[in-house]
Queue: 3 jobs
Job 1
Amino acid sequence: MLHDGPSFWGLINPQWSLCSKGRRQSPINIEPDKLLFDPHLRPVQVDKHKVAGHLHNTGQFLVFKADKEAKIRVNITGGPLAYHYQFEEIYIHYGLSNEHGSEHQVNKYAFPAEIQVYGFNAELYHNMSEAQHKSQGLVAISLMVQLGDTPNPELRIITSVFNKVQYRSQTAPVGHLSLKELLPETEGYMTYEGSTTHPGCWETTVWIILNKPIYISAQELYALRRLMQGTDVTPKAPLGNNARPIQLLHHRTIRTNIDFRKASDAKCPSMAPDTRYRANTWQESTLSHNVV
C-alpha cells in the first residue's frame, strides 16, 4: 500500500517536493453543493482512432502506455481545454475491497476503482516529459469504475492481459484499444486544476471527472486484485489499495457543465435551495440529488 508521507512523496527525490508542499494537489473530494455551473464548458471530444500499447506492472501502479512508434495519435479536445492534447497513458487505481479504491471521491464516497486517462499538450510541447512541468501541460480524464453485470467491452481489452502482468516489471502488449469507446455515455463532467497523483505531483493537470461510471465484472476485479507489488520470487503485498489520499482543495473552484437548475422534466433534475446531491447515485446513472 502506498503512503502519502514524506518517505514516498516528498523527500526521496527533491523534484517531488510539490507532493508535500503544493497547494493544487490531486485527488480531491468533490463536494457537490460547491460545484460552480459554467455554461461555457463544451463537451469533451476524443478521437475515434484505436491505439496499441503495453500494460506495465510497475510495482506501485498498473500503467498502460501508448506505443510511441505508432503513427496514429488520439487527440483530446473540447471541454475546458484550450489546446489539443495527445493521449499518452492510463493509470489504474483500485482497492482490495469494494468500499474504496478510487482516488477522487464524491461526498466522501469512493468507487472500487478509478481509471485515469492522461494526455499532454501537443500544441505547446513536444512530449509528456516536457509538458508535465509546464503550464497547462497535462489533461487527465477520470473514469470511475463500478462493479456491474454489464462490463465495459473496451475495458475487457485491458483486463484480458492481467494474468500476464501479475508481478512487478512484467509487461503485456495491448492492441486496438478505443479510448472513445472506453468512456461512459455522458457529456456531463466536473473539472478543476490539479496535479498528477503519482510522483512528482506536477501541478500542471486539468482534471475532467466524468459524471457516469463504467462497469467491471466481479471476475475482472478479482483478477485485478491478484496483481502483486513484487516479483514471482518475492511477491510482497498486493498491488491494490494504491490510491493517493485526498488532498486539500485550498479554495480551488470545481466547475461543471451540468445545470441542476433545469426544469424537472429535463435530463438533469431541478435544483432547489433545500436539496443536496447524493454521490452514491452514480452507481445507477449520473450524479443526482436528494431532498434533505
Job 2
Amino acid sequence: MRIATYNVNGVNGRLPVLLRWLEETSPDIICLQELKAPDERFPAAAIEAAGYEAIWHGQKSWNGVAILSRVGTPVETRRGLPDDPDNTQSRYIEAAVNGVLVAGLYLPNGNPRPGPKFDYKLRWFESLVAHAAELVATDMPVVIAGDFNVMPTDRDVYRPERWLDDALFAPEVREAYARLLAQGWTDALRAMHPSETIYTFWDYLRNAYARNAGLRIDHLLLSPALAPRLAAANVDRDVRGWEKSSDHAPVWIELANKPVRASRRKGPKI
C-alpha cells in the first residue's frame, strides 16, 4: 500500500497537476495540505472521477487539509486537534482507511519569529505532541502525514546557517519534533535515506529548484505498530518541475502486508 502526502498550494489552481500525478503514480491514500478553498469549493467530482473517495476540512483562501483514498472509504475520526489553540484554522483531519489510522496535518509556519504567529505554532505543536502520545498508546497502525513546517536537522536544509532565525528551523520547533519522535514514531523518509540530501520543498524564488536549494519539511511518521511494515519511501521530485506546480513535491511510503523491518519502540530516528 502506498501512502503519500502532498502540499498542493491551492487545490483548484493546481488541480491539473494533482490529477496528472494521481494518474501517473496511483497512490492508495493521499493527505493533501493547503487546499486554500472552503468546503463547498473542494473539487470532489474531479477527485471522484480520478478514482478516489475523499474527506476534507477546507478554509477560504488559507490552510485546508484532505484525505483521499482508492482503497476504501475514509471514515473520519477527528477534525481538528483536541486542544487546538485556534479551531478557526483548518489544519488537521484524521480517518480510518483500509486498516490504518491516517492523520493529515498542516502545521503552522510560525513566521515572523518572535511574535504571535510563532507562539501559535508552538502551542499547536504541543497539542499535536499530546494527541500523538494518545495515538501511540492505542498500539494501532497510525501514520501522521503532512507539511510539518520544520526541518528536523541540518541535513534537512540547504545552507542551514541562513535559516537560524526562521521559525521552521527554530530550536524550540526542532526540539518539539524530536520529542514527538521520542514517543516511538519513525520518520519514514529519513529511516529509508539516513544520510542522503533529500528535500521536499523548493521556493519559487532564486531558481531554488534548479539549484536544489531545498528544505525537507513534509514528513510521514509511522507508529511502532506500523513502522515494521515500511518497505520504501521517497519524494516524487520531478513533480516540482512541472508547469504551474506547487512549491512542494509529493512524498510517499510503501507499506508491506507483513513486517519487513525490526520494530522500534523508543528513541527518535531522524
Job 3
Amino acid sequence: MDNLRILLYLLLFSLAACHPEGSHVKQGLDKAAQLMGQDPDTAAILLESIQVDQMNEAQLAEYYLLRTQADEDKNVHHTSDEQIQKAVLYFEKHGNAYDKSKAYYYLACVESDLGRKEEAGTHFMEAIRLAALTEKYDHLTKVCKRCSLYYQRNGNFDEALEMERKAYASQLMLNDAKQQSPLLLSSALGVLGVLSLLLGVIWQKNRSVRSQLSFFKEEMLSKRVESDQLALQCTHLEEKYQSLQIQIYESSPVISKVRRLKERVHTPSKAFAFTENDWCELLQLQENIYGLVSKLKTMSPKLTEEDLRVCAFLREGIQPSCFADLMKSSSETLTRRISRIKTEKLPFADSKESLEEIVKSL
C-alpha cells in the first residue's frame, strides 16, 4: 500500500509537470509540505523528483528547508549545514516570524548533530522566541520538545525541564485554540512528561550528590591521614630543632666561658675578659632556647640591659661574687641590685624563691 501511494503521488506530480513552468514546482513543494508531518519518506521522494534548476530564490529556500525537515523527521543524522544555511539567509530577509522560526529551528537541529553546542543552543532559543510571536502552537510545542531533548543529551536537565514546561503550556494553548475534546488527555500526558523528566532530573542529581559525597568522604579520609602524618613530622622536626638548639647552646664558646666562672673564686677583670659581643650572644642564646629575654620584658618593661645581663648569669647558676667585677660592681652592691630586681621591677615581692630560682623556672 505504501508503494502504491508513493507511485500515485509521483503520477500526480508528473501530470502537474505539464503545467506552465514553475507551477509544478510550487505544487510539488506544497504537496511535500502537506505530506511531511504524516509521511516524511514520501515527502522526501517528491522533493527529490523536483528539478532544482527550475526554482526561483523563494522556492529554493523552501526546498532546502523541506529537505532538512525530511531528514530530521526521518531521524537521519545531519552531516552538512550548507542547504539550511541558504534557507536561513533567505528567510532572514524575506520571511515572517513563523518562517524564520522554522529556519532557525532546523538550523539548530543540524548544528546539534554537528556538535556545535553553543550555536545550536542560541538558534533553538531564537526559534522559540520567534515561534512565541505567532499562534503556531503546534510548531512551538515541537521546537520546545526538540530543544528539551537537546539539553538532555548534553546533561543540562534543569534547562530540559524548563523546555518541557514550555512545551506543555504550548500544547494547552493549542488544545484551547482548537477547542478539542482530548484536552484532558493531552494535559495529563503533558503533566506525565514533565513529571517523568522531573523524576529523571531528581534521580540524576541524587546520583551525582551521592557520588560527590562518596568522593568527599574519601578525600576527607585521605586528608586526615595526611594531617596525621604531617603532625608526626612536625613533632619530629620540633624535637630535632629543640635538640639542635640545645646542642648549639651547650657547645657555644660563650656558655663555656660563663660556666668557667663557677670554678673561680676571684675573677679579676684582667684575668677574665667578657666583651660586648659575648653579652649579646649570651642573651640571644638564652632567648632562642628559653625565651628568657622576651618573658622578662613582658613581666616588666622597666628592666634595663644590665638587669637582663644579671638574670642571664643567674640562669646559668653563677653567683654574684663570681661576676660582680664584670658588672663593674662589688658583690654586696650586686646582691642588693638582685633583690631590687625581684621586689621592685618583677612581680615577685612576696615570693620566697630567690631571683635565681625564679629565672630558672621561666
